[in-house]
Amino acid sequence: MSGSVLYDVPGPRAQARNRIIGAVTIVVVLAIIGFVIWRLFATGQFSAQKWELFGYTRVWQMIGQATLATMTAFAAAGVGAIVLGFILGIGRLSDHAWVRRPVMAIVELLRAVPVLVFMLLLYYGLPVIDIRMSSYWAVVLALVLYNGSVLSEVIRAGVESLPRGQQEAGYAVGLRKAGVMRLILLPQAIRAMMPVIIAQLVVTLKDTALGFIITYPELLYTAKLLGSNANFGSPLIPSAIIAGTIYIAMCLALSYVAHRVQERTKRSPKVQLTIAPLQETTDTQLIATQARTDNRTGQAGGSV
């Protein structure tokens, strides 16, 4: 008898009901999409006048430069957030309270402040104390601070979710805590948390759009600039469609790269054999300990 411990297998009536609900949902979604497309046509959003602007090479050069600015900020922020996440995550796992508690306070503070507030403080607040920062660095630092704090919690949760036997096996072969963390725990935690890490990087990529508020010339800023051109009928919707398509393409590309990296990591022989020597050593020690115990028990019985 097959079944699931989480839910009962649906019967014929439930299956029929699920099919009806699925069909109705598809019809409703298609109806909403059709209504939106009809309203776009009815309001002239697909007219030649509104799309004429995007027939110029100079406009696409601007879009390309804005996309490059978005990717540049994302690349710097992504690397910085991962580095900061590792530093804060390891600090949260420290055995020393004088390290763990201040790091915990820093993480909670950084997670509580919105990214946009960070950007505004860095770009408009620092000049008040005679410290000036370009819009690029304000965007990058704000993204690093917020996403780094989130990734630190992801890494900490990944390490703490591992079986305690992994850590004990490392200590059994003579590794110190730094070696156990670097060689055993972190590699496994990263593999386990890879989908969450990639999802947070996708959020980082999309949050670069907040830079338009502090006049960073990224993709959304350029789309808003092009969409406000009154000479071409203020093509805001066409600009948003093009910018949204580019954002979707970048996110899909990032997800594809992450998927390939994860698949390659799973097939790597080094990854597959990371824990095998430690587990073998631990099993050998357990067998030896059991043998010594049995030997002592036999000797005690013989003496009696």
Overall pLDDT score = 80
Structural class: mainly alpha
- Please state roughly what percent of the residues sit in beta strands, choosing from under 5%, 5-15%, 15-25%, 25-35%, 35-45% or over 45%: under 5%
Tell me the span between the first and last alpha carbons.
54 Å
* Fraction of residues in H or I helices: over 70%
The CATH class turns out to be: Mainly Alpha
Q: Please name the CATH architecture.
A: Orthogonal Bundle
- The gyration radius over C-alpha positions equals 28 Å
CATH-defined superfamily: MetI-like
Number of domains: 1
Could you give the order of the helices and strands?
Answer: HHHHHHHHHHHH
User: Uncertain runs with pLDDT below 50, 5 residues or more?
Assistant: 270-286, 299-304
The CATH topology name reads MetI-like fold
Could you describe the largest sheet, including whether it forms a barrel? none
Tally of contiguous helical segments: 12
The total count of strands amounts to 0
Q: Which shape, going by the Cα principal axes?
A: globular
Description:
The chain contains twelve helices and no strands. The radius of gyration is 28 Å and the shape is globular. The chain is 78% helix and 0% strand. It has 304 residues and is mainly α. The C terminus is likely disordered. The protein has a single domain, classed as MetI-like fold (Orthogonal Bundle), CATH 1.10.3720.10.
